[in-house]
Amino acid sequence: MRKKIIIPLLITLAISGCNNPFASAPECSDKSVKDLVITLYGDIVKQSKDNPLTNIFAQGIPSSLKSVNTARSTDYNKDILLRSCRAEGITDNGIEISIKYTVQFLKEENDFMVELDSDFLEGLMQKSIMDTISKMKK
Q1: 60 to each of 7, 52, 56, 64, how far by Cα in Å?
Q2: I need a labelling partner for 102 at 20 to 30 A (CA). Which of 58, 68, 73, 82 fits?
């Protein structure tokens, strides 16, 4: 019997003060977007460590991202002003991870929103589990 732990796939955070007269999503490499990705990563990891169902798997996951590098756009939907992005993140302990996120311009609020896809978390949890098992065998 295989048990599966369900964690939120996306965490959303909106940032205020984006005055964009051209009404398009900010670039993936925009500093404010990358700063939000770093914040969202920390929020996802903290939520996983605080959740009794996932904390045993999340203990070995790096708590924060130091940087987001090579941010690039993989798609842009002009109809909904949504930009899909990929980047490499460097964690606080030097692990490089692949990150997917979206940036969407919200016309009504003259604002934008970043959604971080937390698929990266599964790989980090698997590595954490394997490291724990390896330590237990020693």
Answers
A1: 17, 15, 9, 12
A2: 58
pLDDT digits (tens, 9 = 90+) for 48-105: 889 888 887 788 888 899 999 999 999 999 999 999 999 999 999 898 989 999 999 9
**CA separation for the pair 93, 1 (Å, rounded):** 34
Give pLDDT, residue 23: 75
From residue 23, alpha-carbon distances to 12, 29, 107, 110 in Å are 20, 17, 7, 8
pTM: 0.76
Q: What is the 3-state secondary structure (H, E, C) of 39-102?
A: HHHHHHHHHHHHCCCCHHHHCCCCCCEEEEEEEEEEEEECCCCEEEEEEEEEECCCCEEEEEEE
Quote the tokens at residue 65: 């991202």
**Length reported for the chain:** 138
